[in-house]
TrEMBL record:
Domain of life per record: Eukaryota
Organism: Rhamnusium bicolor
Protein name: NADP-dependent oxidoreductase domain-containing protein
Span of domain NADP-dependent oxidoreductase: 30-197
Coiled coil segments of this chain: none
Residues annotated to bind substrate: 123
UniProt-annotated catalytic positions: 61 (proton donor)
Pfam families hit by this protein: Aldo_ket_red
């Protein structure tokens, strides 16, 4: 398969889901957590080349610059337009102060070499002090008690400034989402969480054969045996519980 030829999905156009604000989100995206700087640029280029239109990034992953190079390489070919892509990034826990939200998104945009993203998420409901480590180990001394409702006001400002089309959350529990929905002006469109089956998936891979097979799912049908097998794999555990922060006021689980 040619790596430079861009076409629209393996079995027709990549499926999308309509968000509550009318924008369409492609249901399969490329995850980039722990994708190494030397590999992710090529992975992103390859994924977009075979039809991926959604890339899931985060400031915390510390590879947005390389992701941005991969995206730009595809856009520069002139086959795809910016509006054909759905790019997501996330606000890390050290930057929950309202005044930090817009500057942090601007920083991610600069790394990604984009004028806007499609979806900006609050990565976790709990915050750390801006001066603390990104994953602090000294307990409450590094916690910030900024309420995620205040952070959300900064997120709304990002929409108003047209830096992102949509805003959402990640790792929020039901109570936190209900409270947010009751108190916001612009509603969240997504809660990105760990689940075995969901309305959208963002498998991470830097291996071309896997990037390809993870996208070749649009005519996949699960029968009851497959679903029973998947259910039997359930271990009732989270891969990423962030339990070191379980004593934080806004810890979700
Ligand atoms: N919001 C959040 O808090 C949060 C938390 C976790 C993850 N995420 C997002 O979700 C994405 C996916 O989660 P994840 O990165 O934890 O894990 P994942 O996608 O479940 O798994 C990634 C691992 O599986 C391997 N892999 C990928 N496709 C495969 C295939 N077809 N066959 C065999 N192995 C395969 C990858 O290896 P190679 O890369 O070596 O191919 C990598 O080691 C992340 O990258 C991130 O974008 C968000």
């Amino acid at each position: 398969m040619s790596e430079t030829k861009v076409f629209k999905g393996l079995n027709g156009l990549s499926k999308t889901v309509k968000l509550n604000n009318g924008y369409e989100m492609p249901t399969v995206g490329l995850g980039t957590y722990k994708s190494q700087a030397g590999e992710v640029e090529e992975a992103v280029k390859y994924a977009i080349g075979i039809g991926y239109r959604h890339v899931d990034c985060a400031w915390f992953y510390k590879n947005e610059r390389e992701v941005g190079v991969g995206i730009k390489a595809r856009l520069d070919e002139g086959v795809l337009k910016r509006e054909d892509l759905f790019i997501v990034t996330k606000l890390w826990n050290n930057f929950h102060d309202k005044k930090s939200v817009v500057p942090k998104l601007r920083e991610s945009l600069e790394f990604l070499q984009l004028e806007y993203i499609d979806l900006f998420l609050i990565h976790w409901p709990f915050g750390f002090k801006e001066t603390a480590d990104n994953l602090p180990t000294d307990g409450a001394a590094s916690y910030s008690d900024v309420d995620y409702l205040e952070t959300w006001e900064g997120m709304e400002e990002c929409v108003n400034l047209e830096l992102t089309k949509s805003i959402g959350v990640s790792n929020f529990n039901k109570e936190q989402i209900d409270r947010l929905v009751k108190n916001c002006t612009i509603k969240p469109v997504v809660n990105q969480i760990e689940v075995s089956l969901g309305i959208g998936v963002i498998p991470k891979s830097v291996t071309k054969t896997r990037i390809l097979e993870n996208f070749d799912i649009f005519d996949l049908e699960l029968d009851s045996e497959d679903i029973a097998y998947l259910d039997s794999c359930n271990k009732n555990m989270r891969i990423s519980p962030m339990s070191a922060y379980a004593d934080h006021k806004y810890y979700p689980f």
